[in-house]
Amino acid sequence: TKYQMTPRQVEIARMIADGASNREIAQALFFSESMARYETVKIYERLRVKNRAQAAGMIRSIL
Questions:
Q1: Residue 1: which pLDDT band, with cuts at 50, 70 and 90?
Q2: How many whole angstroms separate alpha carbon 45 and alpha carbon 2?
Q3: Does domain 7-62 have CATH number 1.10.10.10?
Q4: pLDDT surpassing 80 at residue 2
Q5: Residue 47 CB: number of other CB atoms within 10 A?
Q6: Cβ atoms 43, 51 nearer than 8 A
Q7: Please, which residues have CB within 8 angstroms of residue 4's CB and are 6 or more apart in sequence?
Q8: Phi and psi (nearest 5°) for 19?
């Protein structure tokens, strides 16, 4: 894709678009909340957005 996300980031991105919190993402994917936060920030960078709401909107339009 244009945004070059890893499979894990795509999975997390879908969860962000569905409204999941970092804690919910971490619990669902069996890793720490800090790892969820790290991956979320990386997704924001790849999508060139500044916050979760912008990311969710962008994700819904591309996935």
A1: low
A2: 13
A3: yes
A4: no
A5: 20
A6: no
A7: 46
A8: 95, 10
pTM of the predicted protein model: 0.91
pLDDT tens readout for residues 5-55: 999 999 999 999 999 999 999 999 999 999 999 999 999 999 999 999 999
Residue that the structure tokens 């909107």 belong to:
57
The structure tokens listed for 50 are 């500044």
**In the 3-class helix/strand/coil scheme, how is the chain assigned residue by residue?**
CCCCCCHHHHHHHHHHHCCCCHHHHHHHHCCCHHHHHHHHHHHHHHHCCCCHHHHHHHHHHHC
